[in-house]
Amino acid sequence: MKKLGFLAFLFFFLLAFPGQGQAASGATHIKLDGREIKLTKDSQVQEISGSVLVPLRVIVEELGYNVNWDSKTKKISIEQGGNTLDLTLNKKTAHVNGAKIIMPAAPLLKGNITYVPLRFVSEQTGLKVLWDNKLKTAFLTSPDSESGSDTGSNSGTTAGNVSGNSTPVPAPGGSSDTGTSSGSAGNGASGTTGGQSQLASINGISFSDNRLIVAIDGTTITKVSKLTGPDRIVVDLTNTKFSDSFLSGQPLNSAGQGLLPVTGFPDVKQVRYSLFSSNPSTVRLVLDLNYSKGYQLLNAGDGLVIVDLNQDSSGPATSPGGNGKKLVVIDAGHGGQKDPGAISITGKYEKTFTLAVVLKVQELLKKEPDIDFVLTRSDDTYPTLSDRVKIANDLNADLFVSVHGNSAVATATGSETYYTRPDSIELANVMHKYLVEATGLPDRKVRQKSLQVTRETKMPAVLLEVGYLSNKNDEALMYDDAFQERVAEGIVAGIKEYLGLQ
Ligand SMILES: [Zn+2]
User: Fold this and answer.
1) Which of 153, 283, 407, 484 pairs as cysteine with 237 (C-beta 3.0–4.6 A)?
2) Per the record, where are the segments of Gly residues compositional bias (predicted)?
């Protein structure tokens, strides 16, 4: 079981939680790196209030760790290979090698079985955890490299995230835009009108650099209207639907609408989207504006529909980067309910860290006259890894930078920069120099690894593991505003040096 041992044990221990009520009839499963772990009838995986729970005893039997249970103090101490984990029944505080960790719920004892919520552990240990509700199976994947890098390089799993509370899509403000659309109609782009057989599908919706960007497979017909009272721009995409992967990452609410909050761009309040009509299948996007604003529609049939508020339709149409400026794509790792990323030593999400840094990068890039930029996400949503790659490739970007936080054993600390293809080495070296300088953390070097976003993009591409969320010191810094700002400045400085824009 390689080095996985103790981590796996921690994981299993913490995975558990008392269940009132067994999981519904039917067997549940745990697969560790593809290998099924036997569960007895009364030690099934349980789902309670959205959390996935696994009994400790099974795991103890499976892995054979040294466990001390003090029934007086209700303390559970687990040791393996010099690592210790201390838990107390009914208390949310645990210690891993002396470092305090707060769990979302306290361990509980039921019969002889100790249970702890999964979410806390999931990536505390470096294990990837996915719960497939259909198969009633918890899939555990051990880290695939010594670095403990958490960046999955595949997006093919159908397993959903196990973490508990769901964040409902906020209800859209304002009335639905079913009214008559007066005002200037946008230019319809090319596209055949034949039947519904070949619907285009939307893979991603994002708003960055004052542009609405819709990533689409297939050909769509666009109609844009500018409406008043309140001011808004309505974009209808005919012959178009939402892709399944989009809907699983950015689900619509019960009214069939989704919402993309917009911050940092004074023209726009928010973006709403819905399936406006099923015959013909039409997706409607509404940009709720703070005041009347011109726009430029771009639908060149290249996989992106762009509504650009930086210029109105009287000006020449330019796509991002098509104006002599360099175009960079900045990717905040993970996102949405589907993929919170690693969970930090104090229970914070990696996705929150990555977004915070990227939004700071955005603010800095806005001031750069020679750089255009696109964010793969600007809020808590989950574009798939393929979507992120597609955005960069469709835009023919000059470079791609993905921001992540690492997770492994508690002692691991420092900054790493990953690349995959040889044409990215120079970018990796430049970015790493600025990253290490900005973080002040140990230099864990530039490393080559096959990661989807650095492998399948067609331009120089790097993935920054800024620091270790599993390390007390790194983690405290990583959620510090001033530290994030320094990292953002380092990223922009690296981009500028690489592009020769200093
Ligand atoms: Zn990550």
Assistant:
1) 283
2) 185-194
